[in-house]
Design a protein that fits this description.
The protein is built from 9 helices and 7 strands. The protein has one domain: Rossmann fold. β2, α3 and β3 form a beta-alpha-beta unit. The N and C termini lie far apart (45 Å). α2 packs across α9, α4 packs across α5 and α5 runs parallel beside α6. The longest helix is centred in the middle third of the chain and has 29 residues. The protein is of the alpha/beta class.
Amino acid sequence: MNTKTNLFRLDGQTALITGGGTGLGFGMASCLAAAGAKVVLVGRREAELRQAVASIGPLASFVVHDVTQLSRASELIAAADQRAGTPVSILVNNAGIHVKKPAAETTPEEFQSVLTTHVCAAHALTAAVLPGMIARGEGNVLFTASMVALIGLPMVVAYSAAKSAYLGMVRSLAAEVSPRGVRVNAIAPGWIESPMLRQALCGDPARTGKILGRTPLGRFGRPEDIGQAAVFLCSPAAQFITGVVLPVDGGASIGF
């Protein structure tokens, strides 16, 4: 056995990825499957999920589900276990929505909707999957955070609040469950090519130029850049890593 190679394999693992049909979720699902994990994609649009599963191949399946139905989180975990035929050992809290407008124009309803989708749904699913992981003595919970949790960006106050909440959740959860064999980490993507990024930058060339101007690598990232980081954090190669927030941003968080 080539241990250096196998350290980055995920054979025998089952990953549930919310928002897995497109964008960063699809990028992570594709890379996790390429590393040997079974992947269960979760989203609200069946057509997108079917297309994503067909693209990934036989290790992929899907469940149509709205993560904001918080009381049904345990149902989703059970459905994913059934689809894959093995228990969920990797949970990727990735589903999210975006509201771009001035803070003074963001309504309480819009603010709460963003928090519910990102924060409350992630907590509900994590709470539902943890008992099984703890009983088995192993597991990984991964959160998709954001650069907005590390630096200030205008026009996205609700999104910034939600992603900043992830940082506290990761640290608290890691301190609580890592002694039981469950690692909890986050990836903080920079600006990655995705439908959400295109929406955020639509009609705003000055903002696009500003982002690229402060990104040392000089480009937007690709979904697979996030996927490869997810594979690492969930793999045996990262077995002594928990409670971290890993920027995958082309250097944007340290650039000028």
